[in-house]
Amino acid sequence: MKAFERGKRSHQSSYKLLKNQGLPLLCSQKTMLIPNASKWCLEELVKFINCKEEREQKVIPIFYHVDPSEVRNQREICKIAFSRHEKNADEEKRGKIRRWKTAMREAGKLAGYDVKVDSFESEIIQDIIKEICGTIPMVLDVDEKIVGMDSRLEKLVSRLEIQSNGVRMVGVCGLGGIGKTTIITALYNKISNQFRSTSFLTNVREESTKDSGLLKFQQQLLDDTLGVKGQLTLKKIHEGVKEIKDKLSSKKVLVFVDDIDDSRRLEHLVGKHSWFGHGSRIIITRRKKDLLKAHEVDYIYEVDKLNEVKALQLFCSYAFRQCLPGKGYGDLSIQVVRYADRLPLALKVLGSLLFRKGVKDWKSELKKLQEVPNMEITNVLKISYDGLDHTQKMIFLDFACFFKGAHVEIVTQVLDGFGFKAESGINALVDRCLITISTNKKIEMHDSLAQMDKKIVYKECPNESGERSRLWKHEDVCRVLTINTKIEGMLLNDQCTSEHEIKFTFEAFKRMTRLRVLIVNNNQVQLFEDFTFPSHDLTYLYWAGYSLASLPSNFHANSLVFLYLKDNNIKRLSERKLVS
User: Fold this and answer.
1) According to the model, what pLDDT value does residue 133 have?
2) Residue ranges of the chain whose pLDDT lies below 70
């Protein structure tokens, strides 16, 4: 407990301090009972007992040269002291004395340390220190450079409803690298002192893939909350479930389960509300919402990206070790923040990468990032992608390459035309926070995710663009117009510039038999009369500036879901009836 300067003691300030401490200590001695000199001490005693009753904080009484029964029963010197306090006391003071007596009686009932005149005080002090160290919650390491945390913690704390007596589970979800672990670590440090029993289980996904890993977390949960490390050894998962339910069902605990991706593991760690005592709080982090919903958590907090101001502050704290860009780096810093799309992990990694580098190096790194994503960022994001099934991956790649920013209802029809079960696939991507649907029904995706997806397509065949499933870069499209094989989707947009016209010929397209998506938004495309669409799978056709007077005579429309021809020269759809 913090010491007060002599002559400057304050009941209000000491009570506020006590409320914020995890472990108040109570020292009861004969000098506390001396009239006049002990009024402040007795008031402090009342505050200690209030902390115990209102906040369930642990109080350790130290009976220094006074018998606990004398304090509890208020005999001998206690009785004499209170008699003197009561002499000539008005009603207000009598009320205070009654509170003092009650607090003294409660303190005498508590188990503590009885320090007699002939005791070895140094040994008792060591015992007290050992007990305190075993009771105070650990403080977890949190990055000192974090920004935008206060508002997030405030919202989470309000949703935990710590003052209510029921058991409450709260889920925290969001994209990889969005800051879930950082947020709950700060939350733990903020509220752990309000719980006698706490446990923080980290990296559950990575370390519990086998039953031995899950058993380890069950063991840690029991060791942390019961304080019995080494006394209870689990051998089987079902044994761990039974012990958790039996031992913690009457205990108020604070438990954090960080980064879990399997419903079975979650069920075996924090299966139901009834496993824990009244007032318990369970916080679970997860990349996707569906597991949290299925677990029937009371509230799901989805972590959003930082706003632009906070994102710039976070980046600068790593790149410059200050909250603002260095001189001459303002525009470059904004470019990096935009590239990172306000993702905390990306801001941290790129800020550290660019620290103490010159302007020339910054420009070089930015140019490189446009072509080659940072692997540290990509590896974190790819965990969510790897958890998708084949169809969900196909949808996700199509979104990144062709449909980012498109209207979800149109894209849903197109995906159904591919046979992709669009609604199920889109819901899966939203649940995993890989995409969001805006208020105006547009598909939105983090830029780092889009770049990761394009890298996945690129790796299908790094040395030959014609062997990849999707194309979106000008130079790759131009190349495959002469040598293609496996293209399923192709985008040529108005950002592509060339001094020469791009020629779409029969030979260029005749082997594109798997083409599902074709997006042309470039007025430099020249078509020859023998131009054809050989693919029967073409589902999405967007062509701005279509130059021929009609669609090809063999145009296959049986799979077509979306057709958009803007600024075209069409006078009739086809020379003959469309193949349908």
Assistant:
1) 65
2) 1-38, 55-56, 133-145, 481-486, 494-508, 523-524, 530, 534, 573-580
**Euclidean distance between CA atoms 313 and 311, whole angstroms:** 5
**How many of the other CB atoms lie within 10 Å of CB of 424?**
12
pLDDT at 580: 41
SS (H, E, C) 534-546: CCCCCCEEEEECC
Distance separating alpha carbons of residues 415 and 175, to the nearest angstrom? 24
Q: Over the Cα atoms of the chain, what is R_g?
A: 34
- Catalytic residue ranges: 44
Q: State the amino acid at position 527 in one-letter form.
A: L
Distance of alpha carbon 76 from the chain centroid: 59
Place of tokens 């063991």: 219
Which one, of 65, 69, 68, lies nearest residue 121 by Cα?
65
The neighbouring-strand residues paired with 27 are 62
Name the residue among 297, 377, 300, 301 with its Cα closest to residue 336: 377
Give Cβ neighbours of residue 377 (< 8 Å, ≥ 6 apart).
177, 343, 345, 346, 349, 448
pLDDT of residue 3: 38
CA atoms within 13 A on the CB side of 381: 26
CA distance 420 to 397: 13
Secondary structure of residue 571 in the 3-state scheme: coil
Side-chain half-sphere exposure of 516, counting CA atoms within 13 A: 19
E strand segments, 374-449: 436-437, 443-444
Residue 412: the pLDDT is 93
Q: How far apart are the C-alpha atoms of 244 and 248, rounded to whole Å? A: 6
Residues 151 and 324 sit within 8 Å (Cβ to Cβ): no
How far is 159 from 168, CA to CA, in rounded Å? 9
Q: Report the alpha-carbon distance of residue 263 to residue 261 in Å, rounded.
A: 7
> E strands, 268-415, where?
281-286, 299-302
Give the three-class secondary structure for 462: coil
| Phi, psi (rounded to 5 degrees) for 394 | -60, -45
Parallel/antiparallel/unpaired status of strands 253-257 and 197-201: parallel
DSSP structure string for 28-66:
EEGGGGSTTTTHHHHHHHHHHHHHHHHH----EEEEESS
Q: How far apart (Å, rounded) are the C-alpha atoms in residues 26 and 62?
A: 6
Residues paired with residue 172 on neighbouring β-strands, in sequence order: 285, 301
What's the CA gap between 529 and 127, in Å, rounded?
A: 94
What is the model's pLDDT at position 319?
Answer: 92
Q: Is 415 exposed, middle or buried (0-12, 13-18, 19+ CB in 10 A)?
A: buried
What phi and psi, each to the nearest 5 degrees, are found at residue 551?
Answer: -70, 155
Separation of alpha carbons 54 and 223, rounded Å: 26
H or E segment to which residue 139 belongs:
none
* SS3 category, 540: strand
Distance CA 176, CA 68 (A): 56
Rounded CA-CA distance 14/61 in Å is 18
Return the residue matching tokens 């791009």.
Answer: 502
Categorise residue 111: left if φ over 0, alpha if ψ from -120 to 50, beta otherwise.
beta
